[in-house]
Amino acid sequence: MLAKDIKPGVIVVNNGAPHLIESLSVQSPSARGGATLYKFRARNLVTKQKADITLKGTEGLDDADFEKRAVSLMYADTEVAHLLDGENYQQYELALADAADDLLYVTDGLEGMFALIYNGECVGIQLPTTVELTITECDPGVKGNSATGRTKPAKMETGLQVNVPEYLKQGEKIKIDTRTGEFLSRA
After folding, report:
1. 15-50 pLDDT, tens per residue?
2. DSSP string of 40-102?
3. Which of 126, 155, 175 is the last residue of a domain?
4. Is the domain of 74 the same as that of 121?
5. Which of 18, 104, 148, 165 could be bridged to 64 by S-S, CB 3.0 to 4.6 A?
6. Could you tell me which residue ranges the Translation elongation factor P/YeiP central domain spans (predicted)?
7. Exposed, middle or buried by CB within 10 Å (0-12, 13-18, 19+), for 161?
């Protein structure tokens, strides 16, 4: 796969290990004959370490022999999250240490969540880009302050802390970006 075809969310092989591309920046040449550089921020799916990869436009990386399976969260105990494949009802286990941040966005019946399977083992989960969560705790808004861009901290049903606009109240559903953890809009 050529560097120009690699997008965020794609899984490639770098140094013999599967890497999930998280972000991309393109640096155009400043002189004639200069090559366009593609800079990728990737996460090694086995060791969970971040890696920076820089390629010229004519260079490329191999696709990882990877499988994405649509799953749902069955339950999480103190050490492991248990996931269920919706098609063949196979169960996968993922260490909580590897998925603790991602599980703050997961609710019952979440659509669009995928298990990343490498060599028959679940090495991570991929979340949808936005999720809807309900505010369970937040300070009350002050009447008349809704015109300003001020925010307040709010706790979601999963325990996630998000800064939301002052006009939102407890019990409202909101959309959150899973890549940045930021408030997007009311649901």
Report:
1. 888 888 888 888 887 766 667 888 999 988 878 788
2. EEEEETTT--EEEEEEETT-B-EEP--EEEEEEEEEE-SSEEEEEETTT--EEEEEHHHHHHH
3. 126
4. yes
5. 18
6. 68-123
7. exposed
Name the domain count of the chain. Answer: 3
For tokens 């028959």, name the residue. Answer: 120
Report DSSP state, residue 158. T
Q: Are 13 and 19 in contact (CB under 8 A)?
A: yes
State residue 146's pLDDT score. Answer: 57
Are 73 and 97 part of one and the same domain?
yes
Residue 136, CA distances (Å) to 30, 129, 176 in order = 52, 22, 15
81/117 same-domain check: yes
Give the Cα-Cα-Cα angle 176, 173, 71 (nearest 5 degrees): 60
Q: Which domain holds residue 151?
A: 130-186
Residues with Cβ within 8 Å of 139's Cβ and at least 6 positions away in sequence, in order, are 152, 153
Q: Do 120 and 135 lie in a common domain?
A: no
Cα gap 184→187, rounded to integer Å: 9
φ, ψ dihedrals at 102, nearest 5°: -70, -35
pLDDT at 33: 62
Which pLDDT tens digit goes with each residue over 156-169? 999 999 999 888 88
